[in-house]
Amino acid sequence: MPTAKSKLDISLVRELAAILREADLGEVEIEHDDLRIRVSKATSMAAAAAPVYASTSVAAPVASAAAPSASAESTPAAVPSNAITSPMVGTVYLSADPESKAFVAIGDKVKKGDTLMLIEAMKTFNPVEAPEAGTVKEIIAVDGQPVEFGEPLIIVE
Fold it and tell me: Would the pTM count as exceeding 0.70?
């Protein structure tokens, strides 16, 4: 007989699968206390190529797994060890709203806990905060870009 917890887990998996379909995502993951659930779509090996990350200062488009770059020899950029990464799957926003100034710009000094950007997931805006004081060296994420868990967003040194 299913327990109340397993019924909750099953309904949560169904909700995550619905979000996956509605937002046309490849994967969605949620972690709370001792529960961790990841739902992903099956992909072919050709579509499983890792995305290439681009800096906003270069204004280059970000290649996606669905649209591989023209160069078959290109490899994903190495993720810097000091990059602040996305804590969740969602959409990144560099400002509170389209008319507002970005939370930070390259060269800005930030304090521990300052909001660097927002990630919208399931209609909730979650702040990405500076883990320590420093200077913004590079903003990797592009405003309005979908991001995956662990994807590099910004570098603060």
Answer: no
Q: 3-state DSSP helix/strand/coil percent for the chain, to nearest 5?
A: 15, 30, 55
Structure tokens at 152: 């590099």
The residues facing 63 across adjacent strands are none
For residue 134, give its domain range.
43-156
For 42-58, the pLDDT digits (tens) are 544 434 444 444 433 33
Half-sphere exposure of 37 (CA within 13 A, CB side): 16
CATH code (residue 68): 2.40.50.100
